[in-house]
Amino acid sequence: MATFLYRLGRLAFRRRRLFLIAWIVVLAAVGIGAAGVSGKTTDDFTLPGTQSQTAIDLLEKEFPQASAAGATARVVFEAPAGQKLTSAASKSEIGALVAELKRAPQVASVSEPFTNGLVSEDGTIACTQVTYKVPKADITTAASDALHTVADQGEKAGLTVSLGGNAVQDKAGSSAAELIGLVVAALVLVITFGSMIAAGLPLLTAIFGVGLAIMCITVATSFVDMSSSSSTLALMLGLAVAIDYALFIVSRYRSEIRDGHEPEEAAGRALGTAGSAVVFAGLTVIIALAGLSVIGIKMLTSMGLAAAFAVAVAVVIALTLLPAVLGFAGMRIMKGRLTTKRLRAQERGEGETMGVRWGRFVTRHPVRMLLVSVVGLGVLAIPALSLRLTLPDDSTAAPGSTQRVAYDTLSKGFGPGFNGPLTVVVDARDSDAPKAAAQDAYTVIGKLDDVAAVRPAAFNAAGDVALIGAIPKSSPNSQATKDLVSAIRDHSAALHQDTGADLMVTGTTAVNIDVSSKLGQAMVPYLAIVVGLALILLLLVFRSILVPLKAALGFLLSVVSTLGVLVAVFQWGWLKDLFGIDQTAPIVSVLPILLIGVVFGLAMDYEVFLVTRMREEYVHGAGPTEAIVAGFRHGARVVTAAAVIMISVFAGFLLDDVALVKSIGLGLASAVLFDAFVVRMTIVPAVMALVGRRAWALPQWLDRILPDVDVEGEKLRHVLAARQQATTTAAGDGSEVPAPATPTRQG
């Protein structure tokens, strides 16, 4: 790999105009394609095999007119202060609006507020439910516009009208988060390199790559269903890793030039060494994110694949476009007047850097530093024991949004449970007494404590499948509602024994409960897969048993401590005002698994970039402690800068109004903070100092069967050194200097 990347780096540097033009053509072509698509996204969240999904499938078959899998919207009307909707004028106006909704495109049914009991007791709030023939992803612009037109007409008539349900499209978020991340990244790069040119190249290539990736994802929405959060996650990770990967390569390029190499040779060596680590680091992130597809949830799959694609683009850009841009910069990348005398002295090898001093401090006090770090992360992880999972609904919408207003208005008028109705399906196809079975279920449900109202059974045409509606007293995400769903389902066994009928619960709340439960169950197996993958990959890279084990355990510490922070902030409400959180709620179900995948990849990034240099020094004869310090001398400054950039990019998304995006931003920022500074730069050197040479031990039989991936480019350096020696010898003999031999084996 290292030899191939060395050649690629020199080729891109030498043919820089060709590479740059090729990438511009690709960007323009994708941009034209993205401009011609609608970019529809969906937040439909289903999981095959759950009871709620089985019930939905049965309803689709037996009650096709109900459009059980179709999108829904709630139009909520509120009377002006001091007035009621039961007045003749208000009734007439609402009736006209409902009639307008019935004529809208793709609408399957619209409920009548005044005949279906959808008016509050005080007569100030009413709602109508719109059911569409198609799922959310297939709702046309005309259908969406018709819904908003009705809301506007109601507002003009003096009513307060708000829209809820999964058919209502979210407003586009602002770009403040991305801008803040870019500004902080620019400052960190300038401080790190002391050069505007050197700092600008990672930003330039990162923006280019992220723009390309987002436009490709937009094009993909025309062919596959994509979650509305897919682009946001891809933007977060794509921007962060693209800057980091370019930072590592540019830093190595400058180092090679300081060692006396010509720019083209420096570009080749930088790609052969740091580029190899970038490939491996990017591969780990891609595998972890793409692995989310094994969970079997479309929303999670689209988010994982979109983010993995953005990371893949970042890697390819770093390996092709970046060396080409380095060719345009040439030696000017070394010119910088923004560094201090101290930093310039350190670049000349004079004095010790902060990283070296920290490395020496940790290796002198390994036991103390290890205990403090592990105990600290353990304390942060304690709140994770109270982790509760849920799916986003209108209650988690941005404050002031029409969805959030509709949710709060319905809670005020009808009680919190009205936003989470339960649909109970009685499957009596194998029963001799379908009506008795349905009546039994209706009676049992009506006697449960947390039930506010029950709608009598409605049968299908064959009379063997019944539909019963139940309104809980508690809010959809409350534990009481979850207990109610369990209580209804627990009656299924007794009902089947007495009548031969089966009882199932579905509806938005039941779906959320089932999906959250399945994701919670999938977390441990997925974690095992990711950790197992980490052990195998790190075993190949470092050819050591203890280093992979240490890296995997450190990764687990980062994950559980991050989950603890999320629970403390979003569930318990600690520092919620600081982060702009207006109410506490369970953690979004997809977040823990997303964190596992993303943090795994990022953790391996820092592990590779920091520890490969330690291994390189150890192989060259340095003692265990000296190798650790040398790794900090060459890698601590760059890893610190990369971590600060990532934290800044992720933390910028805390400004988003959407709770899911906000929680992802805080989670990823916390994870990078813990993993980079506590795990990789404190726990890792402390453990390695304690185990000494045993850190690099590998059984001989295992060493023989493992392929040598040569991430640090050690073989490449030997090939180049031998070539240089042969050239020098030939020149010293006065004979003709042969052309450099092409290496026949890739590292």
Automatic annotation (TrEMBL):
Q: Which InterPro entries match?
A: Acrflvin-R, MMPL_dom, Mycobact_MmpL, SSD
Instruction: Name the source's superkingdom.
Output: Bacteria
Q: Recite the UniProt keywords alphabetically.
A: Cell membrane, Membrane, Transmembrane, Transmembrane helix
Q: How does it sit in the membrane?
A: Multi-pass membrane protein
Mind telling me which residue stretches traverse the membrane in this protein?
Answer: 179-199, 206-224, 230-250, 271-297, 303-329, 367-385, 523-542, 554-575, 587-606, 638-655, 667-691
Instruction: List, alphabetically, the SUPFAM superfamilies matched.
Output: Multidrug efflux transporter AcrB transmembrane domain
Q: Where is this region: Disordered?
A: 727-747
Q: Does the keyword Cell inner membrane apply?
A: no
What's this protein's family per the entry?
A: Belongs to the resistance-nodulation-cell division (RND) (TC 2.A.6) family. MmpL subfamily.
PANTHER family attached to this UniProt entry: MEMBRANE PROTEIN MJ1562-RELATED, MEMBRANE PROTEIN SCO6666-RELATED
- Protein known as: MMPL family transporter
Q: Which organism is it from?
A: Streptomyces vulcanius
